[in-house]
Amino acid sequence: MTTSYVIDAVRTPRGRGKAGKGALSGLHPQELLAQVLNTLQKRQGFDAREVDDVMAGCVSQVGEQGANLARNAVLAAGWPNEVPGVSLNRFCASGLQAVHFGAMAVGSGAMDLVISGGVESMSRVPMGSDGGGQDGGNTHLRERVFQVPQGISADLIATLEGFSREELDALALRSQRNAARAIEEGRFAKSLFPVKDPHTGAVLLARDEFPRPDTTAEGLAALKPAFTALGETAAWPKGQTLDQLALAAYPKAKTIRHLHTAGNSSGIVDGAAGVLLASERYVRERGIKPRARIRAMTTLGSEPMLMLTAPAPASQKVLRLAGMKASDIDLWEINEAFAGVVLQTTRALGIDPERVNVNGGSIALGHPLGATGAMLLGTALDELERTGKQTALITLCVSGGQGIATVLERL
Predict the structure, then answer these.
(1) Among residues 134, 147, 164, 370, which one has the least CA distance to residue 245?
(2) Catalytic one among 58, 100, 260, 397?
(3) Active site includes 92?
(4) Is 100 among the catalytic positions?
(5) Catalytic residue among 100, 258, 260, 367
(6) Taking residues 258-272, what's their average pLDDT?
(7) Phi, psi of 74 (to 5 degrees)
(8) Catalytic residue selected from 92, 100, 258, 260
(9) Cβ atoms of 274 and 116 closer than 8 Å
(10) Separation between Cα atoms, residue 319 and residue 309, nearest integer Å
(11) Would you give the DSSP letter of residue 308?
């Protein structure tokens, strides 16, 4: 196994994920990813024929995001027919999983140049559009393992951990403030490119559309819990509510305190991202200077009812693989699917919160499911270069009880 190099990373701005309202909602998701591909090519000047594969994460692979979105994005970009593409789904970790697969390919020597990333148009293909729910409707599986929606799991975690509503809202406010500062100071400028109308060339969106820099603690406190009614919904098999099913698995919680709101949970947005990965051979023969290397990467399963607690053990596993400790990591990107996930992971690993999500996260910026992991890697790389720091760890929780983690080392 040789080194997997990161040559470049780019992303679109995140557009509000509301049909007819978000700035990117009029653009087909294939076109979003196509612009990522062409931006990487323009920045790095490679011949598209040299790209051995395009690997794209996408969660809702149905309708406009079906039919192998990655391959169609290659064609939409006007690239040669010889360039292949593959779409993959590891739920919220899909974009980072694509990076892992690409890093495996170039690190093994099987490929020399790969573009890995992801895309999600949540305005055009809303979450859950594939109709799979939590378990694909498999009643036999449901008898063995009942999975509740993520919002119930997030509130159960907050209950078990003893987090208060004030703590969750404080993390959300920090995310908004950090994102606002990052935007004001141009910290995203290196990776961010403006999305254009493919027909007219007009700029559709040049900066992240979702953040609310005027957010206040009082405003967050006024929001109602988002998952109370969902928890009271009758579910299979005997009409128990979702809360009752979760409590049957975790009776020590006694009752689920519904604390997550629209303000301290990730935002629904549209976006795409790509990471250009290369082998040692390609770097040597082309005389390219990489920006970073993938030092270690891993995935891990966890208990599927609680579901969202795997970032901590996945991070511990990847640190072992890298021969490092949590204190060795300069920057952490812990996906802000829910505020409780970030707090639980930070506590479990004993991380200094000041090293976590220093430029905001998915609460402020939004979470374009299939693209987020690749976006977080690019954000981490830019911040390492801006500050002169060396290492970052990127981790995300995953539906169904999984986690993913990557150690990135700046060169």
Answers:
(1) 147
(2) 397
(3) yes
(4) no
(5) 367
(6) 98
(7) -60, -45
(8) 92
(9) yes
(10) 17
(11) S
How far is Cα 126 from Cα 18, in angstroms, rounded to an integer?
A: 9
Angle of CA points 166, 376, 260, to nearest 5°:
25
Give the C-alpha separation, 297 to 319, whole Å: 9
What are the respective helix, strand and coil percentages of the chain, to the nearest 5?
40, 20, 40
β 5-11/292-301 pair status: antiparallel
Q: How many residues does this entry show for the chain?
A: 411
pTM greater than the 0.85 cutoff: yes
> What is the average per-residue pLDDT within 18-39?
98
Residues in a beta bridge with 273: 11, 118
What average pLDDT does this structure show over 293-298? 98
Residue type, 125: V
Distance CA 344, CA 365 (A): 20
The dihedral built from the CA positions of residue 245, 341, 395 and 188, taken in this order, carries a sign that is positive
Instruction: For the chain, give the percent of residues with pLDDT over 70.
Output: 100
How many whole angstroms separate alpha carbon 154 and alpha carbon 397? 11
pLDDT at res. 11: 99
Reduce the DSSP state of residue 113 to 3 states and report it. Answer: strand
**Continuous H helices in 83-125:** 94-108
Do 300 and 309 touch, CB atoms closer than 8 A? no
CB neighbourhood size of 111 (10 A): 18
Asked about 367 being catalytic, the answer comes back as yes
Q: Is 357 helix (H, G, I), strand (E, B) or coil?
A: coil
Give CA separation, 187 vs 212, 220, 230, 287, 345, in Å. 17, 26, 38, 28, 25
Pair type for strands 5-11 and 203-205: unpaired
The answer to whether 59 and 270 have CB atoms below 8 angstroms apart is: no
Residue 1 has pLDDT above 70, yes or no: no
The structure tokens listed for 390 are: 């060396």
Condensed to tens digits (0 to 9), the pLDDT of residues 328-352 reads 999 999 999 999 999 999 999 999 9
Q: Which of 78, 80, 67, 92 is nearest to 38 (CA)?
A: 78
Structure tokens at 254: 């006694």
Residues 26, 16: contact at Cβ < 8 Å?
no
DSSP 355: G
Task: Count CB-CB contacts under 10 A for residue 317.
Answer: 17
Residue 147 to residues 127, 265, 303, 306, 401, Cα–Cα distance (Å): 17, 19, 10, 8, 9
Taking residues 144-165, report their average pLDDT: 97
CA distance 59 to 27: 18
